[in-house]
Design goal:
Distance between the termini: 50 Å
Strand order of the largest sheet: 17-18-19-3-20-29-28
Radius of gyration: 35 Å
Largest sheet: 7 strands, antiparallel
Number of strands: 29
Structural class: alpha+beta
Shape: elongated
CATH topology of the largest domain: Bactericidal permeability-increasing protein, domain 2
Strand content: 35-45%
């Protein structure tokens, strides 16, 4: 029987599950492979989990981004966006409509024309009195831009965390990130621009431009944009608030052009003298004075952006965030057969829980819920209580890795429990064709204070004993439990779990497994224990000679970034901590 357990333990190879994404504009984590599971026959559990059992695992995953890791986001945001299928250097907008918030009045004249305001008002009033049907209201413009295409080049595109900005704005919770952009080259082309004056409908028959283009000149100062944004998580909901906006648009040197200017038909008739508007001359004047016109336009756009852009950003962000940033990922149940239907797979829902910036390290924490679509009723889950609530990251220098991924043992154990409840461990096939049944949910414990590179796996199994001399001391079904000591190892940047040994001091044989004779003969029971311990000791000798890999932990892909493991260890907080480096080439 013990030899069968030994064979069974050697057969337990981990079965990998897919990587899992996190969120805002955001953060991506991973579900561990589980070394207890291996080749098994399919058997429905008698007592499956319930549908909709959504027990929340608190602090399921934690991500700590060091100053070194943050530098990537400061200098390589363009690369990050590209890895996630977003290219900003070229793009197009089918349609953009802008309606002015209020009508333009003489009070809105550019500064250089304001000294003439009174005279212009008097001329306008006189024309209204002298010419019948000549009333022109203060214009309220609507601009429709069709088929915009752009191409640009970034000098810088990134985000940084700014504790001073948080202090400046009096923010005590969450973080303040500053988005900063520098654009030395920008080309915009618009095939059609149409302008409407909503207060003077008679002007709208023909007003606009065709084949408009604009660009930043080669010798210009790059266009810069900067926006600090407050990000927080309140009651599991991400909030985003743009705080201000700055740009140097007014000092950027630009130029523009267009092929055709569309103007209303204007005719002045005095007796037999007819005078009409010449669009070509108007266009020529516009081009001769484009420097002044662009200066006015850029000043207006800068003021408008400073006063309105943060509000627009916050409104759009609110629409997106109102739906929540929870993510649900499906994965194959460990130990089960290859899924053939959607409901065969488990689901993991992760939700943001906490974000803060302490000692120059950015932390994002998420809760997790494991869901079994096939389950029929609730099954309670008792978390393994860790020795500590907070992981201890200080053993590895923050200068030597980019981020630390902290995976809670309770999330892993919940997944194991669900596979167990489905019956995937009812019969684990051994090499000799016999079966071992796992009779309670296997439990991982990573809060080992003895050694940070070790973890413990507790199992309880049942095996049928064939007829023979062993049946003198044991019944047909023998129940045995013990701890397996697992070593955590990084090999070639890949995290592995190594079966190091069975902890013989933890081996227990259920007293109900002994025959009546053995129960009444302590020496016979002692002989059974002695033989079990010797066989397990022999197995441990074999594990010491030849490294037995229980499983490989699949590396996560967070925000499209690949990683390699620099180091990993268990922690008294009841977690596995993986110290990761970006693998960008």
């Amino acid at each position: 029987m013990v030899e069968s357990i030994k064979v069974w333990m050697k057969q337990q190879k981990a079965k990998s599950s897919p990587a899992v994404k996190i969120a805002a504009g955001t953060i991506v984590a991973a579900l561990l492979a589980l070394p207890i599971v291996g080749t098994s026959t399919y058997s429905h559990a008698n007592d499956p989990l319930s549908a909709g059992d959504n027990l929340v695992i608190k602090d399921a995953v934690g991500v700590y981004i060091t100053p070194r890791g943050q530098n990537y986001f400061k200098n390589n945001l363009e690369d990050l966006l590209f890895r996630n299928g977003i290219a900003l250097t070229e793009g197009q907008f089918d349609k953009f409509v802008y309606t002015a918030p209020k009508a333009l009045t003489l009070d809105d004249l550019p500064p250089q024309y304001r000294p003439y305001r009174k005279s212009l008002e008097e001329v306008r009033d006189s024309l209204h009195r002298w010419l019948m049907n000549s009333t022109i209201h203060d214009p309220l413009f609507r601009v429709t831009v069709l088929g915009t295409e752009y191409a640009l080049k970034f000098k810088t595109l990134g985000v940084t965390i700014d504790p001073k900005a948080a202090e400046h704005y009096g923010i005590k919770h969450g973080i303040v990130v500053v988005a900063h952009v520098a654009i030395p080259k920008l080309n915009i082309s618009v095939p059609k621009v149409r302008v409407q004056d909503l207060h003077n409908e008679f002007l709208n028959k023909k007003l606009g431009l065709t084949d408009f283009w604009a660009e930043i000149k080669d010798n210009s100062t790059p266009l810069t944009l900067e926006m600090p944004v407050h990000i927080d998580i309140v009651d599991g909901k991400v909030t985003l608030n743009a705080l201000s906006f700055k740009t140097n648009l007014d000092v950027v040197t630009t130029r523009f052009g267009f092929s055709k200017l569309l103007l209303p038909d204007v005719t002045i008739r005095i007796n037999d003298k007819v005078m009409t508007l010449d669009p070509d001359e108007v266009k020529a004047d516009i081009m001769r004075n484009q420097g002044g016109l662009m200066k006015m336009l850029k000043t207006y756009l800068k003021e408008y952006a400073a006063n309105n852009l943060t509000t627009l950003v916050n409104q759009e962000a609110s629409k997106v965030l109102q739906k929540g940033l929870d993510e649900v990922t499906e994965f194959d149940p460990p130990g089960g057969p290859t899924p053939t239907k959607p409901e065969d797979r488990f689901k993991l829902r992760v939700s943001p829980q906490e974000v803060h910036y302490t000692n120059q390290t950015l932390f994002l924490g998420v809760n997790g819920e494991v869901i079994d679509p096939k389950a029929h009723r609730d099954t309670p889950f008792t978390p393994v209580k860790p020795a500590s609530n907070k992981p201890q990251l200080g053993s590895v220098s923050a200068n030597s890795y980019d981020l630390a991924l902290v995976l809670n043992q309770n999330l892993i154990n919940r997944v194991v429990q669900m596979s167990y409840q489905r019956g995937y461990f009812d019969q684990v096939k051994l090499a000799d064709g016999s079966f071992v049944k796992v009779i309670t949910t296997p439990v991982f414990q990573f809060d080992q204070e003895v050694s940070r590179d070790h973890a413990k796996l507790h199992v309880k199994v049942e095996q049928t004993i064939p007829c023979g001399y062993e049946r003198i001391a044991l019944k047909e079904h023998v129940r045995l439990e013990f701890d397996i000591q697992v070593r955590l190892k990084s090999s070639g940047g890949v995290p592995k779990l190594i079966l190091e040994k069975v902890d013989i001091s933890t081996v227990k044989v259920d007293t109900s497994s002994f025959s009546a004779l053995a129960r009444n003969l302590p020496p016979l029971r002692a002989l059974v224990f002695s033989k079990i311990n010797k066989m397990l000791a022999d197995a441990n000798t074999g594990y010491a000679r030849s490294e037995e890999v229980l499983g490989v932990l699949p590396l996560p892909s967070i925000l499209g970034l690949p990683f390699t493991v620099k180091e990993l260890h268990s922690d008294i907080s009841g977690s596995i901590i993986l110290y990761l480096e970006y693998k960008l080439k």
